Amino acid sequence: MTSPFMWYLNRGTGVVLLGLLSMTTVLGILATGRQFSARWPRFVTQGLHRALAGLSVALLLVHIVTAVVDEYVDIRWWQALVPFGGTYKPLWLGLGALALDLLIAVVITSLLRDRISPRLWFVVHLLAYAAWAVSVVHGLGIGSDSRRDWMVSLTLVCVSMVGAGALGRLGLGVAGWWQRRSIGGWP
Fold first, then answer.
1. Would you put residue 84 in left (φ > 0), alpha (ψ -120 to 50) or beta?
2. Residues 65-95 pLDDT 10s
3. How many other CB atoms are found less than 10 A from the CB of residue 8?
């Protein structure tokens, strides 16, 4: 089955997923921080993180199903799961499959969080960073709009958001740098 609707749905879900997964990643970074206030308590950030993660998973399923069902290009269901096994743009599709596999591990361990060790959950949850980065590269390589100005701008905003969040979490942001400098830390 092929139709313009399926193509637009697949394309649209990919674009929206870039934003959703980026926001989910940033909220995950913020949820691990220690700066919270009565106006914005930690549970609000964690709740938003979980809600956006759930929405992202649902939208990701739509993205995958439309890619497989649309016969315009030959993508088999197993090629969405097995990295680099496809014939259509194997590198870019393979990166999408790899990102999916990493996210599956993150989702499974999150669902089992109460039954597994916190350390195991944490270590596997770190794969979310890799999944996000790999999915961005997947979109840049396979996305039909990836070279358009608006998509380049959206991608740069998302990468900047996650990058700033990660640097801030590592204490390498501007505020962290200024604080270290003022107390005689490294420049």
1. left
2. 999 998 888 899 999 999 998 889 999 999 9
3. 11
Q: How many degrees, rounded to 5, is the angle at CA 86 between CA 15 and CA 60? A: 30
Whole domain around residue 57: which residue ranges? Answer: 4-144
The verdict on residue 78 lying in a domain is: yes
Q: Tell me the one-letter amino acid at 46.
A: Q
Number of domains in the chain: 1
Which pLDDT score, from 0 to 100, does residue 187 have? 46
Kindly report the pTM of this predicted structure.
0.86
Q: What is the mean pLDDT of residues 145-162?
A: 97
**pLDDT above 50: residue 24:** yes
Q: By the 8 A CB rule, do 87 and 74 touch?
A: yes
Inform me whether the pLDDT recorded for 134 exceeds 90: yes
Exposure string over 153-184, b if 16+ CB within 10 A, otherwise e: ebbeebeebbeebeebbeeeeeeeeeeeeeee
Neighbours of 140 (CB within 10 A): 16
The answer to the question of residue 152 being in a domain is: no
The verdict on residue 187 lying in a domain is no
Inside any domain, residue 180: no
Number of residues that make up the chain:
187
